[in-house]
Amino acid sequence: RKEVEQDPGPFNVPEGATVAFNCTYSNSASQSFFWYRQDCRKEPKLLMSVYSSGNEDGRFTAQLNRASQYISLLIRDSKLSDSATYLCAVMVTGGGNKLTFGTGTQLKVEL
Amino acid sequence: GAVVSQHPSRVICKSGTSVKIECRSLDFQATTMFWYRQFPKKSLMLMATSNEGSKATYEQGVEKDKFLINHASLTLSTLTVTSAHPEDSSFYICSASGGRDGYTQYFGPGTRLTVL
Questions:
Q1: Per-residue model confidence as pLDDT tens digits over B40-54
Q2: Which residue of A has its CA nearest to B40?
């Protein structure tokens, strides 16, 4: 089983739709969680950290479920510019701040 | 804040040559820098972790003699791909941590290496 798993997609949604991605992790010692956005042939850019209580940043909401070992990202009112690959990343306690990335979920927002 | 630069952005070289990639944190001191490799449609794979002034820690399966890492200062790390071969063609990305919270990683723009 991979350490961090994501549905690769693509998720094709119309503009204005709400879309949610899940990411599961296998190491229960994971302590910190992140969502990154990666555009084609570009570097990942930090979208948001994921906190235990859940957090929201504009149209984006991140949730953490430690019991089931998954994190989620919800995008409301999706825009064409949201089209990208969304990577979840997990950091393990005592792991030297190393991140383990999922393979990413591709989102395509269409007119 | 938390800007990381990488140079060159793209390099094409002949098989057998060595290529050096620089990673710089521009507005913060990076206590730790990470080097990743990403193949098309694949995720980022960590190659090594480097701390300023000490030897890099390589991930399993990554040859330290082939991928030489130097972290000479708190703002600069270099990755040298020695005797590059076509199978080394990939997107190499560095990241740096040590900003406000000390652990969030900020990524450089990446270097696309093509070995002919």
A1: 888 899 999 998 888
A2: A41
Look at residue B87 and give its three-state secondary structure.
helix
Query: Token digits for B58?
Result: 């390589």
Facing residue for A101 by CB, picked from B43, B57, B103:
B43
Instruction: Tokens 């990241």: give the residue.
Output: B95
Q: Which of B98, B46, B91, B61 is nearest to B76 (CA)?
A: B98
Q: What is the pairing mode between strands A11-14 and A105-110?
A: parallel
Strand B90-97 and strand A11-14: the pairing is: unpaired
pLDDT in tens, B69-101: 998 888 999 999 999 999 999 999 999 988 767
N residues, chain A: 111
- Between the CA atoms of A46, A34, A84 and B30, what dihedral angle is there, to the nearest 10 degrees? 30
The answer to whether B106 faces chain A, any CB pair under 8 Å, is yes
For residue B17, the distance in angstroms to the closest alpha carbon of chain A comes to 24
Interface touch A41/B91, C-beta < 8 Å: yes
* DSSP3 helix / strand / coil % (chain A, rounded to 5): 5, 55, 40
Place of tokens 């990524």: B107
Of the residues A31, A43, A92, the best mutation for testing chain B's interface (the one with the most B CB atoms within 10 Å of its CB) is A43
Sequence letter at residue A45: K
